[in-house]
Design a protein that fits this description.
This protein is mostly helical and about 190 residues long. It is about 70% helix and about 0% strand. Helix 2 crosses helix 3, helix 4 crosses helix 8 and helix 6 packs across helix 9. The longest helix has 25 residues. It is elongated and about 60 Å long.
C-alpha cells in the first residue's frame, strides 16, 4: 500500500494543498474510471473521453485549493466534469448516451451471462431499445437520469453537479422516467429492433 491510500479524499486534498502534490495521483486513480465513463456519455468515443478525463483532472488540480468540503470531493469533481462536458458539447453540438458499446468492454453494466442463446438475444435487443429510448430524451432529462441511475448520485448531488434547482432535478428525473417508459412501450409494440 502506498502512503496516502488509506486516507479519505478530503484528507488527501489537505495534504496536496499543503505541498504533497504527488498524492494527487491517488485521487486520480480513485475517480478516473467514473470520469472517463462520463466522458463516454458525452462523446461516445474513447479518444475524446480520455482527453476529457485528462482535462477534468487538470482543471480540478488547478482549482483544488478552492475545494471547501461543503460537498463530497466526488460531487465537486462531477460538477467540474459536467461543466467541462457541456461546454465542449456546446462547441461541438453533439451528445451521446452513456449506454454504448464502449461500456460493454468494461463490463460495468452487464448482468451475469445468460443461460442460453435466446436470453442473450433478448438482452441485446432490450439493450438496443433502452439505448435508443435514452437517446430520444431531451439532454437535460437524459443527463439527470444518467447521473441518477448510472452514477448513483442523489438528487442533491445532481443539483450541485448540473446547477439545476433541486425540484427541477426531481422533476427532470420523474419526467425522464415517464418518457423512457413511453419510448420503451412504443418500441415493444412495434417490436424490438
Amino acid at each position: 500500500m502506498r502512503a496516502g491510500d488509506e486516507f479519505s479524499d478530503e484528507v488527501l486534498i489537505s495534504h496536496i494543498v499543503a505541498g504533497e502534490r504527488e498524492l494527487y495521483r491517488i485521487l486520480i486513480e480513485r475517480h478516473q474510471q467514473k470520469i472517463y465513463s462520463l466522458g463516454i456519455s458525452f462523446f461516445k468515443n474513447s479518444d475524446d473521453a480520455a482527453d476529457f478525463t485528462q482535462e477534468v483532472f487538470m482543471k480540478a488540480y488547478t482549482a483544488l485549493s478552492g475545494f471547501q468540503g461543503r460537498s463530497r470531493f466526488s460531487t465537486w469533481l462531477y460538477r467540474i466534469a459536467y461543466n467541462t462536458g457541456i461546454n465542449s458539447l456546446n462547441r461541438r453540438q453533439e451528445f451521446a448516451s452513456l449506454a454504448n458499446e464502449e461500456d460493454d468492454q468494461t463490463g460495468c453494466f452487464d448482468p451475469p451471462a445468460p443461460d442460453n442463446v435466446e436470453q442473450e438475444l433478448l438482452r441485446k435487443q432490450a439493450k438496443v431499445a433502452v439505448k435508443r429510448a435514452m437517446q430520444e430524451l431531451p439532454e437535460r432529462f437524459r443527463i439527470c437520469l444518467e447521473l441518477y441511475f448510472f452514477y448513483d448520485r442523489s438528487y442533491e448531488e445532481i443539483a450541485v453537479i448540473t446547477g439545476f434547482p433541486l425540484n427541477t432535478v426531481k422533476s427532470h428525473i420523474f419526467r425522464a422516467k415517464q418518457l423512457l417508459k413511453d419510448n420503451l412501450s412504443d418500441s415493444m409494440e412495434g417490436g424490438l429492433p
